[in-house]
Design brief:
68% of the residues lie in helices and 1% in strands. The longest helix has 27 residues, at 54-80. A hairpin with a 2-residue loop joins strand 1 and strand 2. By secondary structure, it is mainly alpha-helical.
Length: 458
Amino acid sequence: MIGIGVMCLIPIIIDLIYLEFNLIGFLIPSLISIGLGFTFSYLLKDYTHKRMHLKHGMIISALAWLWAAIICGCVMFLITQHSFIDGTFESMSALTGSGITLYSDVEILPHSILFFRAFQQWIGGLGIIVMIIAILTRPGTISSRLYQSEAREEKLKPSVKATLEQTIKIYLIYTIFGIVLYLIAGMPLFDAICNTFSIISTGGMSIKNANIGYYQNDVIYFITIILMILGATSFLVHYKVIKTRGKSLLQDLQFKVMISIIAIVTLILYFASNIVPIEILFTVVSAITTTGASVQSSAALAGYPSFVLICLMCLMLIGGSSGSTVGAIKLTRVIIFFKGIYKHIREIMSPKGRVVPIKIANTRISEKAVSDSGSYITLYLICIMITWALFCLYGHDPFNSLFDTISIQSNVGFSTGVITSNLEMPLKLVGIFNMWTGRLEIYPVLITLRAMFEIFKR
């Protein structure tokens, strides 16, 4: 709560630079969060000696993300005059890297709010909990449990604390790299900062109504493509790049699969449609990296051939590398899932009793990992089916509703125009839930809901 409150104070710098006088709008929610944080820290200090388990870390993580969306939503509500639900939706979208907006005209928003949305994406790209424990907590079991609670397993260093510090360094280097490249390409400084925050975090929520298409510049498009791929590549691979002189990038299975999918799908769509090549490449990369940045409007996207939209839906479901800033199912699970199917086929065809091992990069994959991947993918698709059914219940076009449902569940941000400020209130709430579960990979939210159910049952 304290960390989230401090996060809301940072845009005040932009507010003062542009003399927009929205100080109170940032200050009130921030002080509420910080005040409650200190209050609970004092009242609950007797419980700090209790041992933290993974389930506790997951509950803390789930509630922290929800609290962040609510507090940041209060800021949006106080300053933009949109409803509180719309503000919370917008903040959950930014924090989770979903990047879909309910605001029809973002260019009329104050600079401080545009920066705030971009900053939320940048923080959310690494993870709210990750950022906070890297700065506020000491090394130990608590840091480890909270790190795992945000669906992170890979370690760059022996300790979680050192891993997070190294991860943030890499993240900062790529952020500075993106800002410099955009400036060289002719983008204004404010735009360069906000767009880099948005793209490197694979958030995609732009400060322009036409998104990246506003700039009508192929150089900016290519820079954005590079940043999207960097954001969708595992931080462990980035960490090893210098030590291995780039070999880790070429040897990483997830990276090779991602680049192969981008190349193959781009070629297929090039021959299957009349869309401009650079637009195809940009959209394909944006879909698989779950960035959702675009060079076309929602109406233009909805006008794409059905085959193109189906391909984009598949890419949005798959996502990029685990251990990166992306949403969706993630390549590791997809690879393990299909290897499990192949293993099953080979065992049926082999002599009775033969066990076929599964290996990825010379590492043996356990049966439990295969089972977990299948279970998660099934649960993920169930979430999509339920939300899709609700959209259809309210009379929205089934095909476009499926596209937008996959987009919000996978934290992508593409839209065919179904999700707007005119969307029914219950569906906005469902959308908030989808983005929340999609970013935390469902289980922390389900565990939190189950814990609440147990409390009320007593």
